[in-house]
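Extended Data, panel c. Modelled sequence:
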Amino acid sequence: MIYDLRGLNKSEIEISRKKHGPNIISKKKRKGFFSQYLTSFGDPIIKILLIALAVNIIFLFKNSDWYESAGIAIAVVLATFISTISEYGSESAFEKLQKEVGSVKCRVKRNHTLIQIPQTEIVVGDIVLLQAGERIPADGHIVRGHLSVDQSALNGESKETEKYPSEKSHNDVAGTGLLSKSELFQGSVVCDGDGAMIVDKVGNKTFYGNLAIEVQESTIESPLKTRLNSLAKTISILGYTAAIIVAVANLFNIIVIDSHFDYVVVMQKLTNLPFIFSTLIDTITLAITVIVMAAPEGLPMMITVVLSANMKKMLKDNVLVRKLVGIETSGSLNILFTDKTGTLTKGHLEVVSVLNGQCTQYDTFDKLKQAAPLFNSIIFGCLYNTDSSFSGTKIIGGNSTDRALLEYAQPFKNKYKNIITVSHEPFSSKKKMSTSHIIINGRHIYLYKGAPELILPRCKYYLDETGTKKTLFTGSLYTAMRQMAEKAIRMIAIAQSDSSSEYGLTLAGILCLRDEIRKESRGAVRQIEKAGIQTVMITGDNRETAAAIGKEIGLLKNGNIKNAILTSQDLMKMSDSEIKSVLKNIRIVARAMPSDKSRLVKLAQNAGLVVGMTGDGVNDAPALKRADVGFAMGTGTEVAKEAGDIVIVDNNIKSIAKSVLYGRTIFKSIRKFIIFQLTMNFCAVSLSVICPFLGIDAPLTVMQMLWVNMIMDTLAGVAFSGEPPLHQYMEEPPKKRDAKIINLYMYSQILFTGLYTSALCIIFLKSKFSQEIFLFGNGTDYFMSAFFSLFIFAGVFNSLNARTYRLKLFEKLSDNKLFIIIMLFVCVVQIILIYSGGTIFRTAPLQWTHLAIIIVMAISVIPADLARKILLRLFGRKGHL
């Protein structure tokens, strides 16, 4: 078919742009910072705090108890602000990556003139000239030349695709879509050749654009948010229940008990409207105080702090976190769908061994170099019969096989002198081989390179280790090649001849190439599976090659179950319910298509699983976005990175295993903080409820409570954020999507230690023994200063209990130096307040012996909780975090 290659004129360009639109991919309107900040207030725990703040201001402001309102407000503002900055900042970074796409320049023929324009100015009908190294700017079809195109950004396959003009229409070429031999797609890269294309689609209508738009769909709610919703309901129920009990108890105390159960006096109070109104207001105030004290003000702040702190640590392990919540979700994964190329493998071909004509295998350079004549013939075939070339130390041009062979021979590129290249016929889809004619010291040699099944039938001889030509018998060679193929090895044959005839060749050797398995892959897969996470490899390889790789990395084991390997065609024949029924058995999906990934993610989520997906191409973007955690590869496309939650900088599955470990550590850190804070909350609520009945109206002053809130809400959150990731966490089964944040073990610790600490404080306040020791008769300041210290130090020592469910409290404590520093800081500040706080903090300097007694009493929370842990073990209920 003949095309007019003059190019569009100015009026035609405008008509095309109006009709088909610009070459720009539409992006969902991004929320502004303020709008995104307001969205952060939808967090379930934040909602509880906002309600508590509102009623606290309405009912308690009259008592000037501003500290509680200020504490809640600060916790809410800081938590939402830090979270918004993190999300907003990462979005900005990824938008910059997107802008880089628009900076790509293209060579376009317009109105008989060759010009260079930005990719975004391309229109339908434009004639774009392409050569090696250039990125295809839009979808279209090739009308001139021959191209070798890397479509891995779109289909995940590293093998280049040959593109050439159709004899009739570009739609008549065998294959459709990415399989078409004449169609070109935006995002692909030209590896070799040169040619011209006519643009058929731009912007949103391109294959690239459709995928980019799909990734902007809303995603499923994260497991952490699901759990926080559940926790919010639990805290609400407990807080409101406690408030009702306190309100009823307070009314009964004032109306009945204070009346000494005298019916007449009770009736007089009930009929005294001013008294009843005042009592109700005080009771509502007390109930609201209980609700406010029960609310975990520090939890949103702590979650943000722990996620942010670990985000920096993870970057050192080549894990770049784009969305904070993705860190914690990594630890909850039930199933991981992972690409093969670049993640489980190194991502590029390399020569791993050489076979000669008598099936001798050379798996190292040293072995091959010992057979010098054979070695020279192999190196000649790599260096002088290639479509690739050196650009300094970099290898450019050619297909992936050519580049791998040239890389293999690179150390010897300057070794051979007086070699003249007379001619070179590059690889073509028609001949399926490349040839070169070289002269070495006056000797004419013809070099041949191609697929073994094409070259071997043309060979009559082979070179042995001494360089002697011997008759070739291919039977054993084909057997060895089949064994190689079962190991996912690609083979290329190199032969030579002294004449230009393509028959009667002498085989130099068969080079075995492979995208090598990363040395860390087997261990990482084993670690991930040991953590209870099902790993499924998704690849474009055929079933046999995929099986070979699966066995090598440990995905397939002896006696593996049925349906362990499925192909894309298998999946197409199965209904959604059938796939769900065999999902737990699947380990490999071969010949995978982009649509398979999204479908598998969706079905796994419908089955209640927390799903992870790795990917690097535009074709992976929808599945990355849909998954609970999308792991985009560092060398992947901008769209893939934008769709993912986490970027694996080194493309290594080992880094994904580290993400899982960090996620589990973070969830445990959150649980530890909840134990610590709710225990102190429980104690504070108990004292505020019980003490008025004991004649103690304010066990803690406003300033003291401000210091307590600072410990609970801020300092403790920072302290627990530094908990170290322990490899033993990877031996635990993953949490379910709807797993409660507070489990039975945590309830037992919060209730037991909370009750013990409350009892300890009440006994201290009412015991004659403590009143005598701490000079209660000489005024209350000294005594209440001692009580204040007891409350604080009990909380500090209880933080050690909260750190671990094990009996060894100090295990791995030195790995969290931040925890040690903060708790020591709290102790130092508390001692300063005792001796310098004065009337502001209602403290009086304690005698050192009295301070020692207080510390010993506070330390008793440790053996008390140890007794609880031992008791649980005796009943076979060890429990865990």
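The longest helix spans residues 653-690. This feature is highlighted in the accompanying rendering.
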